[in-house]
Amino acid sequence: MPAPLLRVGRAWGRAGLAGLGRAAGHQRRRSSSSSSTFDVAVVGGGIVGLASARELILRHPSLTFSVLEKEKELACHQSGHNSGVIHSGIYYTPGSLKAKLCVQGAALCYEYCDRKGIPYNQCGKLIVAVEQEEIPRLKALYERGLLNNVRDLKLISAKEIQAKEPFCRGVMALDSPHTGIVNYRQVALSYAEDFQEVGGTVLTDFEVTDMEMAKESPSESEEGMKYPVVVRNSKGEEIRCQHIVTCAGLYSDRLSEISGCSGEPRIVPFRGDYLVLKPEKCYMVKGNIYPVPDPRFPFLGVHFTPRMDGSVWLGPNAVLAFKREGYKLYDFSATDFVDAIAYSGLWKLVFRNVSYGMSEMYRACFLSAQVKQLQKFIPEVTVSDVLRGPAGVRAQALDRDGNLVDDFVFDGGAGDIGSRVLHVRNAPSPAATSSLAIAKMIANEVERRFDL
Fold this sequence. Notes:
By secondary structure, the chain is an alpha+beta fold. Helices cover 32% and strands 24% of the residues.
């Protein structure tokens, strides 16, 4: 069988490594620019914020832009704690924004990586039915993928499954050959480098805690109130701007409230714990192996994900995190915990999914329970073959009725501040795959709202 397609873009080599080094260096310190006034400030240095800032400055090179990031480095949270999969757009409702942006975004992602010399592996994905009753759902997924214009999808038999994944067992699978993997933090840092190379300013270690309209002109300013919005950080430092775009992921609801806009939908953090195959067992997995989604449950379920470093991640589960950036089992924030459990939408979600939630918590505690789920696909995997691995935290937007908000939410408000802010309240998975396509949509919305 042919090896999976590992592409290393044309520019990769010394130039690519140097570019990554420059981006990593820039994001550890503040830009050398002394300016503290900007036409547009983008709050959030994750992959969506950086892609959006990049798109805006490329469209409007005569304007000044900044990215404000609370951490000392960029892309530290969801952008650096994800599975790294370049999704093809199979799962989403035909005609929906998610479906269109994922298909467009995947194509743009591959094109960008080729142009910038960022390595990726187009290793493909099998969505595997392990029981006969899953076949109708698998076939429906195939039809959905075709309607979404996902390329080269096909249903394959049990024998064909083993030809592609010798250790995988299933009765039928959906083969998506254009699904791939990439290091999304590397992609995000490349966006940051693009942004800075054309004059954008990145301010790290700048945690936004306040936004208000200026009461007077900056001292010695000849431009009067051209920059009427004051944005302050936790240290009391400030910048001034005309407009704000927030792409704050896990803190998108709180930033909205800071600006006087709505606190809905609420962000509830869910931690996903991964296992990893021991290095000597990674030969058992060639590409991505996924389950057939069960519409009764809110999350996808465990899957097998190869990584660019050669490792294989298994999982994740989905349990309530007790801290918005709580990547460890015992991470706890009283503020975040109370904020989550006081929200009626969370309790409505929990009551509708009690058995599922208990099962997820059980698997989080007991390794053997999670391995049992994996053995449905690769029976040879044993507890001795796996180790506990990393975790990610999903910024799940919930409405007050306990429904997972499954599409993009843009928000602003009335009044002086609200009319100058665009909040990207929910950029749901697959936001990393779709980042360049999402950025175009956000830039369009910024131009429409702020008349750039």
